[in-house]
Amino acid sequence: MSFINPVLGGSYPDPSVCRVGNDYYLVTSSFQYFPGVPIFHSQDLVHWKQIGHCLTRPSQLNFKKYENENYIFAATLRYDKGIFYMSTTDVYGGGNFFVTAKNPAGPWSNPIWIDSELFDPSLFFDEDETVYYTRRGKTGIVQAEIDINTGKFKTEPREITRGFCSPDIEGPHLYKIKGWYYLLSAEGGSRYGHMASIGRSKNPWGPFHGAPHNPILTHRHLSGSSIRDTGHGEIIQAPDGSWWMFLLATRHYTYNNFSHLGRETFLAPLIWTDDGWPVVGQSGTVSLVMQGMGSSVINEQKIKERDEFDSENLALRWNFIRIQEKKSWSLTEHPGSLRLWGNKVTLDDLDAPVFIGRRQTQFETCTRALLDFSPREPDEEAGLAVYMNHLHHYEIGIRKGEEKRVVFVRRRIGDLCCVVAEEEIPGGHVWLQITSEAMRYTFSYKTGKTFPYKTLQTALTRYLSAEVAESWTGVYLGMYATGNGKKSSTSADFDWFEYREESLLPPSILSDLD
């Protein structure tokens, strides 16, 4: 099987997968975005369709403490006796918990809390019906038996390893394969030194002896690779007997260290040595084009989406920044449009701004929207934004000028914020456009009297990268409205929103697929 990585482009880190018959289900972490923990379905491991979110209600998480942007950490998905279990960490809420569902599309239960120390909880259902709870501890990986109905400990957590390659160990997953208990972990931090390592024992409590070729996955020695930060893996067996690893990684267009798309979900084939150790991908590395086993399943279809906002609910790809505590948007107030009302919160605030966005999934994209917005007050504005976090974002928006409306481009880079371009525009609808290349964004607009789109300004992608913004997520593209400290009295109506990928891989790599 040949396929293109990543299999989930954009900010989909920490993938966890389970198989039920011929069906695969996958979840990723979601940090400050709501709804939380997206869940996907596939029947070939390569093509994934989102079917829901695991955390869709305020009762399932706590976004009221706005200390920073790290909330929902790595999730683990498991299935046992007709029930799906998703475990994760609400860092500023109650800690480690799991939710359950009979239908993976939801609804999912309210949290069953386990404990409040550290993060990366994982569940393992053994053949004798013992349920093991494994997570990161203060100095290594700890484990306990739990009552799966209550989340209460049956045994006290105890340390089972301090790492196979590094004292910085997290993301544990326990498996039982051919009589051996395998402990797969992420080590070396989640950036340049990231890796996956594995140990095994005949006892679920260890001692675990590491693979002789640990780490079994890493790009820490490939500083010039277009793929870096590989780690946090999950292994799974397909019905045909083949084995695979899902992992997170970042894409880099050039030798520089900048990655703004986020930590994405990659896939690699896995084989076993004669003495029972896994070998991942190409001797522990992965590539943008992977050669696996079986028939060809090339996933070269570009995303082309246009949302007319003519349904009762938002599509599953849309997210908010935290939870909108009061009604700030509507699909029914102006049928056929998404209506936003700005509040006092801005994109600069560590709070819940009025923003509805979707992940940027490739380097080269085009985002467009048709906006009907006639602000009555100087503080009111609405438009499109490229958002990494509250200190790193760009927007093209509409606001009231001295005499007419103006269209403007603003850059927020850390403690620097500046409107870098502004032009007066006539009344009526405004078409807004953001195109992206690997190294820059271009902001354009047109009105009923201008054609084609007129470029207003550009901005570098590097200042929205994870390395500069110190973020664990990737860039979102979306629509926003704000009253800049006041409740806006003017609605912003988005008639439609269009997003498309202009390319998947460089031409030199695509030619290898012919």
Question: What characteristic shape results from the CA principal axes?
Answer: globular
Q: What does the average pLDDT come to?
A: 93
CATH homologous superfamily of the largest domain, by name?
Glycosyl hydrolase domain, family 43
CATH topology of the largest domain: the name is: Tachylectin-2, Chain A
CATH architecture of the largest domain: 5 Propeller
Helix content range: under 10%
Structure description:
By secondary structure, this protein is mostly beta strands. The chain folds into 2 domains: 2-291, Tachylectin-2, Chain A (5 Propeller), CATH 2.115.10; 304-501, Jelly Rolls. The chain is 2% helix and 46% strand. The chain has an 8-stranded antiparallel beta sheet, with no helix packed on it. Strands 25, 27, 28, 30, 35, 36, 37 and 39 form an 8-stranded antiparallel beta sheet that branches. Strand 35 (430-436) and strand 36 form a beta hairpin. The model is unreliable at 510-514 (pLDDT under 50).
Secondary structure topology:
Layout: E1 2-4, E2 16-20, E3 23-27, E4 33-34, E5 36-42, E6 49-55, E7 76-80, E8 83-90, E9 95-101, E10 112-115, E11 122-125, E12 131-136, E13 141-145, E14 158-161, E15 169-177, E16 180-187, E17 195-201, E18 209-210, E19 217-218, E20 227-237, E21 243-251, E22 264-272, E23 278-280, E24 289-291, E25 304-307, E26 319-321, E27 329-330, E28 338-341, E29 354-359, E30 365-372, E31 381-389, E32 392-400, E33 405-413, E34 416-425, E35 430-436, E36 440-446, E37 454-460, H1 466-469, E38 476-482, E39 491-501, H2 507-510
Antiparallel strand pairs: 1-24, 2-3, 3-5, 4-26, 5-6, 7-8, 8-9, 9-10, 11-12, 12-13, 13-14, 15-16, 16-17, 17-18, 17-19, 20-21, 21-22, 22-23, 25-39, 26-29, 27-28, 28-39, 29-38, 30-35, 30-39, 31-32, 31-38, 32-33, 33-34, 35-36, 36-37
